[in-house]
Amino acid sequence: MSAFEIKGWCPSALRPMLSGDGLVVRLRPRGGRLSSMQAAGIAGLSQRFGNGLIDLTNRANLQIRGVREESHEPLIEGLNRLELVNAELYAETQRNILVSPFWNEGDDIPLLAAELERALARHALGLPEKFGFAVDCRESRVLAQAPADIRIERGTDGSLIVRADGVPLGRSVARGEAVDAVLSLCQWFVASGGVKGGRGRMAAHLLTATPPDVLAGRTEAVSIAASPGPGIYAGGALVGLAFGQLQSAALMHLATLAPGLRMTPWRMIFLEGVRETPAHDGLVTRADDPLLRVIACTGAPACPEAQAETRTLAATLAPHVPEDATLHVSGCAKGCAHLGPSALTLVGTADGYDLVRHGSPRDAAEMHGLTRAQLLANPRVLTGAR
């Protein structure tokens, strides 16, 4: 297995992370949404102070790539003018909130997300920087498979529930109690040793910790919705991004089409009010596009941890991945782009690619040292065919 460093923190706007192509500056859109002016502003800043590449992460954050150290301060000044950065580092890093993109004006979702953001900004809770929240309270859940430690959802009885990741039932709360219940859970998590003993995640902590009364939920959450794909939906259009990355010109184009852009953890952006599928380089607009069946991190040489190139290989192999499967190509065993299991996983090592079936990059490999030439000459090796 490849050696790698687990940093235990994520980049932010105020504290960027150095990568192979420069500094990575992460933005957390408020309520998961950018106005068209903010989106256009980010595109312009990326072009001016970065290398023009923008990532959309599995936490629905945006990352401006290729920022030079001397450009970081003027970039932050520009982001401040767009009202995209908190003044305090703790407030920015705690604001890890996933928001279901399928909401209408007046729904609980944007209102609860805004209330939670304000509450987190008022309290330095001492949460780990990977600790996150999900606001997903419509008639079915679309964020159930996305990473979050505390979830505000809809119960089968129609009530709002607050549920800790790792327990099946949630606690019914009145509309005005939801955010306070979330904060109580956060405080218990920190006080009971979850930051260290739970490796910073709620589900892991609950394997050994005694749940408090606030976790005494009795209400089942509504059903999980089918995974959304690119297409036209009520209220707008969902478009995919190849490997969750787009050029600044593509973001600028999307900003001209819609009054607001809602970020998602699926490498897709929801364009408010758009009724026709947009066309631009780098956009994935067909639900059957093979690129939606592959996941790949930045890979070498842009990531210093990566042992191998990822995205060109993944794109080439995509048509050979079965329609009901997912291929994850990871530059190292960290698996940053996708922490969970996949039907097929290729892990970059110093000796080539290791193949894991029905597992994550850290699981035992079935085959070792596959070369790029071998994979391209016989892509059916992924499915066990000869």
Q: What does it look like?
A:
With 386 residues, this protein is α+β, with helices and mostly antiparallel strands. It folds into three domains: 128 residues, Sulfite Reductase Hemoprotein, domain 2; 130 residues, Sulfite Reductase Hemoprotein, domain 1 (2-Layer Sandwich); 94 residues, 2-Layer Sandwich (Sulfite Reductase Hemoprotein, domain 1). Helix content is 24%, strand content 25%. It contains ten helices and 22 strands. Strands 3, 12, 13, 15, 16 and 17 form a six-stranded antiparallel sheet that branches. Strands 6-7-8-9-10-11 form a six-stranded mixed sheet, covered by helices on one side. Strand 9 and strand 10 form a beta hairpin. Helix 1 runs antiparallel to helix 2, helix 1 packs antiparallel against helix 8 and helix 4 packs across helix 5. The N terminus is likely disordered.
CATH topology tier name of the largest domain: Sulfite Reductase Hemoprotein, domain 1
CATH architecture of the largest domain: 2-Layer Sandwich
Please report the number of helical segments: 10
From the helix content, strand content and strand pairing, which structural class follows?
A: alpha+beta
Summarize this structure briefly.
The chain is an alpha+beta fold and 386 residues long.
Keyword list:
Sulfite Reductase Hemoprotein, domain 1, globular, six-stranded antiparallel beta sheet, six-stranded mixed beta sheet, alpha+beta, 386 residues, 10 helices, 3 domains
